[in-house]
């Protein structure tokens, strides 16, 4: 009787290497899957390691272009940012990897998938919801949520001992006191010393960006061209170098932004599972794109459309963060947001300098900005006398409030005593 097949999302690290061996002990045939989404990884060494442990095969799939074009670029177009700070680099990679995982699972006839995500994190939710949406019949083996596995392995020390007994190769280098997840869009860091939010992340943690204090004294200036909200061309204005392929645009902006320390954030965020976590992120290229896109969007969109679109983008950011990329509500909201982007076309000039990205100019054939109407030098088609009636109408409710309750004195709510000023 043939063994049941498991497709393991494999990284080559300690956890998934031990999980690979453990699955083999449970009498499964295991195929390992690795998605290349732009992380710095020795895929050949990881493949050799998995085969040595006992994997039936290792599938490495290049998904960099797919990731950027189908996930990162739409996120820029929609203006997605979670809790006003996190640009969703890891969250976007998970449904991309899940698509590759499910494709290979079908091709290889795997009844199960397995992963090394922990029971406290977001990734278990993102992977599994994405996989179930793509293939409802797939079954999942999540060792870090299984009582037998967790009783046997409490943590890293138990895994190291198991690896030693099982002749699993373990890196001889000292493990960094934090965990890291990287792709072509960003690098995220969490756990270890970062679990204490009062402790600043050490400078040696950062890999994509250098400290703004060490950034060049000359800014990098680039022109970014958008079509229907999507970046289609970037030109470095000093050299004239131009990029049009999405992966090339992102690589250039990652390098240029990273040299100036753009895109570093250190935050505490709300995980979907209900607890708060501290994360440090480097997202230089998409930070630049997000800034440029937002500026062009405000330039082109009607005020009320912009506000509705922002509300929908906030909802979509929640869907992506929580693992619902392939959910019907996400599809619906995505289509609504895309309708708002049909006129967001034009070019934006940005300046990257010492930790900051600043828009210095913008142009668009679809802008609602009317220079003559906005000018303080001429009246144009605007009648200043009409403003009197506008103010009168808007003052009606304020006068009525005063008639009944008196002035809404906001200042009294912000008075502070000496005790108020003490830190708690």
TrEMBL record:
<dbReference type="InterPro" id="IPR023434">
    <property type="entry name" value="Arginosuc_synth_type_1_subfam"/>
</dbReference>
<keyword id="KW-0055">Arginine biosynthesis</keyword>
<dbReference type="GO" id="GO:0000053">
    <property type="term" value="P:argininosuccinate metabolic process"/>
</dbReference>
<keyword id="KW-0028">Amino-acid biosynthesis</keyword>
<comment type="pathway">
    <text>Amino-acid biosynthesis; L-arginine biosynthesis; L-arginine from L-ornithine and carbamoyl phosphate: step 2/3.</text>
</comment>
<comment type="similarity">
    <text>Belongs to the argininosuccinate synthase family.</text>
</comment>
<dbReference type="InterPro" id="IPR014729">
    <property type="entry name" value="Rossmann-like_a/b/a_fold"/>
</dbReference>
<dbReference type="GO" id="GO:0005524">
    <property type="term" value="F:ATP binding"/>
</dbReference>
<dbReference type="InterPro" id="IPR001518">
    <property type="entry name" value="Arginosuc_synth"/>
</dbReference>
<dbReference type="InterPro" id="IPR048267">
    <property type="entry name" value="Arginosuc_syn_N"/>
</dbReference>
<dbReference type="InterPro" id="IPR048268">
    <property type="entry name" value="Arginosuc_syn_C"/>
</dbReference>
<comment type="pathway">
    <text>Nitrogen metabolism; urea cycle; (N(omega)-L-arginino)succinate from L-aspartate and L-citrulline: step 1/1.</text>
</comment>
<dbReference type="GO" id="GO:0006526">
    <property type="term" value="P:L-arginine biosynthetic process"/>
</dbReference>
<dbReference type="Pfam" id="PF00764">
    <property type="entry name" value="Arginosuc_synth"/>
</dbReference>
<dbReference type="GO" id="GO:0004055">
    <property type="term" value="F:argininosuccinate synthase activity"/>
</dbReference>
<dbReference type="GO" id="GO:0005737">
    <property type="term" value="C:cytoplasm"/>
</dbReference>
<keyword id="KW-0835">Urea cycle</keyword>
<comment type="subunit">
    <text>Homotetramer.</text>
</comment>
<keyword id="KW-0547">Nucleotide-binding</keyword>
<keyword id="KW-0436">Ligase</keyword>
<dbReference type="InterPro" id="IPR018223">
    <property type="entry name" value="Arginosuc_synth_CS"/>
</dbReference>
<dbReference type="GO" id="GO:0000050">
    <property type="term" value="P:urea cycle"/>
</dbReference>
<feature type="domain" description="Arginosuccinate synthase C-terminal">
    <location>
        <begin position="178"/>
        <end position="399"/>
    </location>
</feature>
<keyword id="KW-0067">ATP-binding</keyword>
<protein>
    <recommendedName>
        <fullName>Argininosuccinate synthase</fullName>
        <ecNumber>6.3.4.5</ecNumber>
    </recommendedName>
</protein>
<dbReference type="Pfam" id="PF20979">
    <property type="entry name" value="Arginosuc_syn_C"/>
</dbReference>
<feature type="domain" description="Arginosuccinate synthase-like N-terminal">
    <location>
        <begin position="5"/>
        <end position="169"/>
    </location>
</feature>
<dbReference type="InterPro" id="IPR024074">
    <property type="entry name" value="AS_cat/multimer_dom_body"/>
</dbReference>
């Amino acid at each position: 009787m043939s063994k049941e097949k498991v497709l393991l999302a494999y990284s080559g690290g300690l956890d998934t290497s031990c999980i690979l061996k453990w699955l083999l002990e449970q009498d499964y045939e295991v195929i390992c899957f690795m998605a290349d989404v732009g992380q710095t990884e020795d895929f050949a060494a990881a493949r050799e390691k998995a085969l040595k442990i006992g994997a039936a095969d290792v599938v490495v799939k290049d998904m960099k272009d797919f990731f950027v074009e189908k996930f990162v670029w739409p996120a820029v177009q929609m203006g997605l940012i979670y809790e006003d700070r996190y640009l969703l680099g890891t969250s976007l990679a998970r449904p991309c990897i899940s698509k590759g995982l499910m494709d290979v699972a079908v091709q290889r006839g795997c009844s199960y998938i397995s992963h090394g995500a922990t029971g406290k994190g977001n990734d278990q939710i993102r992977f599994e919801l994405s996989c179930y949406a793509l293939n409802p019949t797939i079954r999942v083996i999540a060792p870090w949520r299984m009582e037998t596995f967790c009783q046997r392995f409490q943590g890293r020390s138990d895994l190291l001992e198991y690896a030693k007994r099982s002749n699993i190769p373990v890196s001889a280098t000292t493990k960094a006191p934090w965990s890291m997840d990287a792709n072509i869009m960003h690098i995220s860091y969490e756990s270890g010393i970062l679990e204490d939010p009062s402790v600043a992340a050490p400078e040696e943690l950062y890999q994509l960006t250098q400290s703004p204090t060490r950034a060049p004294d000359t800014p990098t200036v680039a022109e970014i061209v958008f079509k229907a909200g999507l970046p289609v061309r970037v030109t470095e204005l000093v050299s004239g170098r131009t990029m049009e392929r999405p992966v090339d645009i992102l690589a250039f902006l990652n390098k240029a932004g990273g040299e100036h320390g753009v895109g570093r954030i250190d935050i505490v965020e709300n995980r979907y599972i209900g607890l708060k976590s501290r994360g440090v992120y480097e997202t230089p290229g998409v930070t630049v794109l997000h800034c440029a896109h937002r500026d062009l969007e405000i330039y082109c969109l009607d005020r009320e459309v912009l506000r509705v679109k922002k509300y929908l983008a906030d909802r979509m950011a929640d869907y992506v963060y929580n693992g619902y990329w392939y959910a019907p509500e996400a599809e619906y909201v995505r289509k609504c947001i895309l309708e708002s982007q049909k006129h967001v076309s034009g070019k934006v000039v940005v300046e990257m300098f010492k930790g900051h990205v600043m828009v210095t100019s913008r142009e668009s054939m679809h802008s609602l900005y009317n220079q003559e109407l906005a000018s303080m030098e001429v009246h144009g088609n605007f009648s200043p006398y009409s403003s009197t009636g506008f103010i009168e109408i808007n003052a009606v409710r304020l006068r009525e409030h005063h008639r009944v309750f008196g002035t809404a004195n906001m200042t009294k709510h912000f008075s502070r005593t000496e005790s108020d000023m003490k830190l708690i």
